[in-house]
Design goal:
alpha/beta, 2,3-Dihydroxybiphenyl 1,2-Dioxygenase, domain 1, 2 helices, globular
Length: 123
């Protein structure tokens, strides 16, 4: 199963303070919108998202259809197929994404220790 690009989505208290901290670690902004309370930062192949006030806790994120630079991939495993496979394996993937659709969609699973994993396809 190919889940796509991996990043960590961090729930932060103050976006500007967190941005400055991660920039000191060598991360650079590659996307996002501070006015909408989120930024995406990158350091080589490491990607983190900073999200202020959007969710509790941190989330492991996979983006089917993107490479590490958020460029579209020609060939990728669609989020609907990933959800179908995980559901068939007995995992709780929440409400099923409508079949027969295409494009952006997402779902979450939670690992045995309570860590949330977001499968988030943007295209």
């Amino acid at each position: 199963m190919k889940l796509g690009t991996f990043s960590v989505s961090l729930s932060v208290k103050d976006l500007a303070t967190s941005q400055k901290f991660y920039e000191h670690l060598g991360f650079e902004v590659m996307g996002g919108d501070p006015e909408r309370n989120y930024l995406i930062l990158k350091n080589e192949d490491a990607i983190i998202g900073l999200f202020q006030g959007m969710f509790e806790g941190n989330i492991l994120t996979f983006n089917p259809g993107w490479d590490q630079d958020a460029n579209d991939l020609d060939v990728f495993e669609d989020v609907r197929e990933i959800q179908r496979k995980l559901s068939a394996a007995g995992m709780d993937t929440g409400e099923a994404i409508e079949t027969g659709t295409s494009g952006p969609a997402s779902f979450t699973v939670t690992d045995p220790d309570g860590n949330v994993i977001l499968i988030d396809q943007h295209r």
